[in-house]
């Protein structure tokens, strides 16, 4: 700090407290709503203090779900979401790291062409090619499967670029020394490059896990069988009910449970999260 | 393209390493995109039996269609609103945190987690807060004589989705602004302070101009976010209504193609969106990649 201005310090904290309040308030209200007894929302506006039914509501959503909304119990959707996020994370990182390795450590015809093909994925988010992508997945018979949920999402230009950037900073001498010692490309990758990439892989995993977890449109398209619903897409079916049958206490319990895993990842792995975020988006 | 001084000489291995990434990209990205371009020039009969090539008919119809032009306008309002609100709040927070020494970390943690909230969940959180009969905010607004009802009033629905989408994006902008602020050397600020510049003058004449690469980068990212990643916010809340008031382009592609089954028109809309993304990515990489490092 440059100079001491007590009033400005007070203002700083005041601004931040208001800011944090704005950010936290919707979730606080959702949590409060999720603890209310059934029927609370027939009568009045949302209370500001917790109600008595927290455990009942969460237990009901986790084990039986809201049968009227046609959604399975939440534990099943949470498991689906976890699988989806993990498969996408592992898949994206694996295929990106080996393709970055090929682009940096080898020279071959069509190398630049391959690089551009990967680059193009940045320009084609799923939202702009919904129907044809759906058609491809449906023709391949991948609707209602984990493969269909994850495989189309695991191509990643950003991860490939990140690893490429990182590999370019690895000293050439390492590779020369490895070659002198008789290590081939596979051994060099496995024993030297991979261990060096550990932090990058960890940081990227945090970002990719969140990316996989919050996917909405794609699961909405490819799952019609409720056994494959993910929690983020399942919530919409519940919320659509909220307007006709005021079971907001149950819906908000589901909302809190759907938010919790990725939010905890961000909070507890904040350092890796920030590193991953700032580096992938350069 | 840049490579290593020495390289491995294997012939087949690099192709093998690239194969999975390229296969996924071609099957699930490039092929469908090509299909979208193809069917944007075609019309399918109602039974899906015959398709005829109709040149730019789908496009000319689109631009003659008032609902599509309306969607363009709505997207513009939405994108500008989301970008401005989330960036302004984030910048204010980042500047405040940057003034603090120890407590800054706690505030940072409290501000960054919404990044992990899915857009559809963010939408539902605010949908609930603004619920006309039980929500808290309509009650408060009612005290000021505002009769809030986003189910009927288009502008209310628009404000709702803008707030929900901006709320989620604050955390992202905050982190990048904070990183940008921390890379500005303290000596510049100190020199200006010695010359007698107060905190506000210093911010507008030194800090804000030096922050412009970050600001520009975030501008592109936020427009991109508002245009494409907010599908969940719309679908989870207003579904484009009331009366098309929140029907942004990316939602209209989905609604026309998947719910309305108008394949040709939806494909033409996809192609237009693709051009917009390509434009944004081009600007980002052409002008933003060389972000200034101080």
TrEMBL record, chain A:
GO CC annotations, alphabetized: plasma membrane
Record-linked InterPro entries: MetI-like, MetI-like_sf
Segment forming the signal sequence: none
Keywords (A to Z) from UniProt: Cell inner membrane, Cell membrane, Membrane, Transmembrane, Transmembrane helix, Transport
Coiled-coil spans in chain: none
Main location: membrane
Assembly mode: The complex is composed of two ATP-binding proteins (UgpC), two transmembrane proteins (UgpA and UgpE) and a solute-binding protein (UgpB).
Family recorded in the similarity comment: Belongs to the binding-protein-dependent transport system permease family.
Protein name: sn-glycerol-3-phosphate transport system permease protein UgpE
Protein species of origin: Pelagibacterium luteolum
High-level lineage: Bacteria, Pseudomonadati, Pseudomonadota, Alphaproteobacteria, Hyphomicrobiales
Gene of this entry: ugpE
From TrEMBL, chain B:
Keyword list, A-Z: Cell inner membrane, Cell membrane, Membrane, Transmembrane, Transmembrane helix, Transport
InterPro entries given in the database record: MetI-like, MetI-like_sf, UgpAE/MalFG_permease
Record localization: Cell inner membrane; Cell membrane
A GO biological process held by the record: transmembrane transport
Residue stretches making up the ABC transmembrane type-1 domain: 72-284
Membrane topology designation: Multi-pass membrane protein
Transmembrane domains' residue ranges: 12-34, 76-98, 110-129, 157-181, 202-221, 267-288
Taxonomic superkingdom: Bacteria
Broad class of where this protein is predominantly found: membrane
Pfam families in the cross-refs: BPD_transp_1
Single GO cellular component term: plasma membrane
Signal peptide: none
Record's function text: Part of the ABC transporter complex UgpBAEC involved in sn-glycerol-3-phosphate (G3P) import. Probably responsible for the translocation of the substrate across the membrane.
Family to which this protein belongs: Belongs to the binding-protein-dependent transport system permease family.
Subunit structure: The complex is composed of two ATP-binding proteins (UgpC), two transmembrane proteins (UgpA and UgpE) and a solute-binding protein (UgpB).
Protein name as annotated: sn-glycerol-3-phosphate transport system permease protein UgpA
Source organism of the structure: Pelagibacterium luteolum
Organism placement in taxonomy: Bacteria, Pseudomonadati, Pseudomonadota, Alphaproteobacteria, Hyphomicrobiales
């Amino acid at each position: 700090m440059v100079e001491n201005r007590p009033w400005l310090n007070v203002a700083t904290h005041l601004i931040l407290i208001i800011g944090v309040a704005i950010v936290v308030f919707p979730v606080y209200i959702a949590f409060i709503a999720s603890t209310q007894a059934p029927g609370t929302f027939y009568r009045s506006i949302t209370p500001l203090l917790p109600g008595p039914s927290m455990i009942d509501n969460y237990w009901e959503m986790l084990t039986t779900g809201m049968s009227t909304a046609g959604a399975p119990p939440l534990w099943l959707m949470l498991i689906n979401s976890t699988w989806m996020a993990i498969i996408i994370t592992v898949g994206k990182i694996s295929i990106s790291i080996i393709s970055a390795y090929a682009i940096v450590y080898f020279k071959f015809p069509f190398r630049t062409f391959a690089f551009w093909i990967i680059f193009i994925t940045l320009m084609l988010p799923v939202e702009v090619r919904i129907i044809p992508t759906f058609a491809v997945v449906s023709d391949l018979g991948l609707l209602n499967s984990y493969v269909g949920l994850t495989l189309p999402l695991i191509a990643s230009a950003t991860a490939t670029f990140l690893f490429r950037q990182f590999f370019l900073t690895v000293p050439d001498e390492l590779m020369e020394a490895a070659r002198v010692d008789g290590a081939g490309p596979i051994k060099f990758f496995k024993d030297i490059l991979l261990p060096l990439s550990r932090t990058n892989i960890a940081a990227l995993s945090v970002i990719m896990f969140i990316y996989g977890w919050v996917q909405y449109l794609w699961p909405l398209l490819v799952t019609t069988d409720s056994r494959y619903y993910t929690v983020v897409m399942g919530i919409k079916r519940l919320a659509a009910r909220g307007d006709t049958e005021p079971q907001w206490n149950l819906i908000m319990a589901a909302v809190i449970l759907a938010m919790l895993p990725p939010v905890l990842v961000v909070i507890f792995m904040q350092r890796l999260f920030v590193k991953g975020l700032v580096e992938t988006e350069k | 393209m840049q490579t290593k001084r020495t390289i491995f000489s294997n012939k087949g291995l690099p192709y093998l390493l690239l194969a999975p990434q390229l296969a996924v990209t071609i099957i699930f990205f490039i092929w469908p995109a090509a299909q979208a371009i193809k069917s944007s020039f075609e019309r399918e009969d109602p039974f899906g039996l015959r398709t005829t090539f109709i040149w730019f008919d789908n496009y000319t119809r689109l631009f003659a269609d008032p609902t599509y032009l309306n969607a363009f306008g709505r997207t513009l309002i939405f994108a500008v609103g989301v970008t401005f609100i989330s960036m302004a709040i984030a910048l204010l927070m980042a500047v405040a945190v940057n003034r603090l020494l120890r407590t800054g970390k706690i505030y940072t943690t409290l501000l960054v987690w919404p990044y992990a909230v899915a857009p559809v969940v963010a939408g539902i959180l605010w949908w609930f807060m603004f619920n006309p009969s039980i929500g808290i905010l309509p009650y408060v607004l009612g005290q000021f004589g505002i009769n809030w009802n986003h189910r009927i009033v288009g502008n209310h629905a628009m404000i709702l989705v803008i707030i929900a989408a901006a709320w989620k994006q604050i955390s992202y902008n905050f982190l990048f602004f904070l990183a940008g602020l921390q890379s500005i050397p303290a000596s510049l600020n100190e020199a200006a302070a010695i010359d007698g510049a107060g905190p506000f003058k210093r911010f507008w004449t030194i800090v804000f101009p030096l922050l412009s690469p970050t600001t520009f980068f975030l501008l592109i990212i936020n427009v991109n976010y508002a245009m494409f990643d907010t599908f969940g916010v719309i679908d989870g809340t207003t579904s484009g209504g009331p009366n098309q008031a929140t029907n942004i382009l990316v939602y209209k592609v989905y609604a026309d193609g998947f719910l309305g089954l108008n394949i040709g028109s939806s494909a033409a809309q996809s192609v237009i969106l693709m051009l917009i993304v390509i434009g944004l990515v081009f600007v980002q990489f052409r002008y933003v990649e060389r972000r200034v490092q101080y």
